[in-house]
Amino acid sequence: GNVNVENAKEEGAFSLFSSLSPCYNDYMNDSPTEVKMSQIIMPCHCNHRQELCVGQLLKWIDITACLSAERHAMSPCVTASMDDINFEHTIRVGQVVSIKSKVNRAFNSSMEVGIQVSCEDLFSGHHWKVCHAYATFVTQRKETGERVLLKPIVPETQKEQLEYSLAAERRRVRMLHDDIIKDLLTHGCIQQGDSVEFSNAVAAEKTKVESVELVLPPHTNHQVNTFGGQIMAWMVNVATIAASRLCQTHPTLRTIDMFTFRGPSQIGDRLLLKAIVNNAFTDSIEVGVRAEAYQDLGTNRHINSAFMIFEVLDDHGKPCTLPRLQPEPLEGERRFQEAIARKKIRLDRKYIISRKQCEVPLSVPWNPRNQVYLSYNNVSTLKTLASRKKWRLSSEKDKVRLYSLEEKTMLSFRVDTEVDVPAHTAFSLLAELCNRPSWDTYYQKCDLIHQVDDDDFLYHVVTPSVHPKGIHQDFILLASKRRPCGSGDSYVIALRSVLLTSHPPTEGCNRGEVLCAGFIIQDTKNNMSYYNQASPEVLPYISSDIAGLSTSFYNIFSSCREYLTANRLHFQRHA
Fold first, then answer.
1. Which of 128, 266, 321, 508 is the most buried (most CB within 10 A)?
2. pTM listed for this prediction
3. What does the pLDDT read at residue 446?
4. What is the pLDDT of residues 233-273, one digit of tens each?
5. 228-249 as b/e, with b when 16 or more CB fall inside 10 Å?
6. Rounded to an integer, what distance in angstroms lies between the CA atom of residue 180 and that of residue 176?
7. Class of 202-359 per CATH?
């Protein structure tokens, strides 16, 4: 049951640990890897408030996800990491919790499993969402030491295709998570926390918790390794005690910032669980938890870490103001500042990914620290738009087809056309956004501002106004470019507006916004689709001249095809 940590790192996982439990409810569904579990909540599953213990829920989540992974792999699998989990609601005695898991995508020897948790009140018939999560599992090596290579997932529905595609983006974010925190701290890009002494501050050492658990047979899985869900439950227990010592009441666990599994544990191990409050914000507490395994005379092995966010709620369910924390010197100060960095990342993610399209302005300020999440949002928004079902054909001319999609206050367009160039050539030519004015009359000027990395670029674009007799518009665009990372993927060039303090609106121009735009090019077909989601301020002008818009799109994309054909040989000679 030993696990190769380097193998997990190669696959984009943070760490390794085995997880399974001997009892489960397993139901086949349309997807061959889908597993469902339903449990009625009994008093033995609950805390003193008759609410389901999060530790117990994590056990069930881990069981269900592992069953999905092993169903696909047809071999033993271990939990490599569990992404951030935000618990939106609590679950009470007598209610039913339903957990559904499915493998979204398989890479070489790792796979992403999506998990959805919902709750049902049997007496009212009411259902609600509790949380969702993504877990990474890796296959165990064979007894010969040979790696087990996974067969690819073949998505069948549009929803499965979307999750399959976005799994590659989430994997990219996971691999950069630790680097983002290090960068925040190294470059001093966070507002340093005030850790001076306060008369009412609670000393961090008072919140320390240590607990030892002996791993017995009931704590292990079918691979005779310590059950990962049990480890997570023990970690939640000590974290809750640490948070309680700060606030001197019973806190509610709201968020877990990623469980990172680093190595295995077996029967007979002693597990040393350590927890301490890292920082106390106005209405939330971050607790750091660490799990170490050891034998009688052996050295301690670091096997798991997590950061848990607690709140204290009043009688109306609103967060209470919490005491200040006085960190310990040196290591305590480091943990204090890192907690601030993690909070900034959580807020950035929430602000960027959950931004409502009715909000103005829609653009998000760009900086190197939130770039990873802006890039993820850029690509995922375009892929989500492309997966919509209710596209309506508006016009067609010479193999250029214009589709429209109306959703509440949003109007989106899709242009499909066939191109006589290989997909990788079309991608490379269209990814050079500075050349777009040569074939798109709407782009009067396009200048590269900054190359973030090999896949992301910032551009300044000037276009005519959509308003009759209006002045020109300019945009700051983030272009995120993705090549296929596996079978079934497309080439993607995603565009969205961002704010850049170094580039205010150009004199004589109005600053415009691109909500979502870009190209998706099929790797196996000579088919290219362009998407554009119109912002609310231009809807009256677009909707009043659909015929003119159709003619404009036809002319532009006829010119695009000519551009690709004309530059095909030149590109191949210089490739």
1. 266
2. 0.82
3. 94
4. 999 999 999 999 999 999 999 999 888 888 889 999 999 99
5. bbbbbbbbbbbbbbbbbbbbee
6. 6
7. alpha beta
pLDDT score at 418: 86
Query: Which CATH superfamily, name and number, covers 362-567?
Result: START domain (3.30.530.20)
Higher pLDDT, 177 or 44: 44
Residues carrying CATH 3.30.530.20, the chain? 362-567
Q: Which segments of the chain belong to CATH 3.10.129.10?
A: 30-178, 202-359
**Token representation of residue 174:** 């996971």
The domain covering 30-178 belongs, at the CATH homologous superfamily level, to Hotdog Thioesterase (3.10.129.10)
Taking alpha carbons only, the member of 459, 420, 419 closest to residue 557 is 419
Task: For helices 331-353 and 158-186, give the axis angle rounded to 10 degrees.
Answer: 140
Q: For residue range 176-204, list pLDDT tens digits in order.
A: 877 777 776 676 555 544 544 556 789 99
- Between the CA of residue 451 and those of 483, 502, 528, what are the distances in Å? 17, 15, 25
CA–CA gap between residue 277 and residue 235 (Å, rounded) = 13
Least confident of 68-72, 77-81, 566-570: 566-570
State residue 10's pLDDT score: 39
Contact partners, residue 63, CB within 8 Å, separation at least 6: 19, 20, 21, 24, 37, 229
CA-CA distances (angstroms) from residue 563 to 179, 426, 479, 566, 568?
40, 10, 20, 5, 8
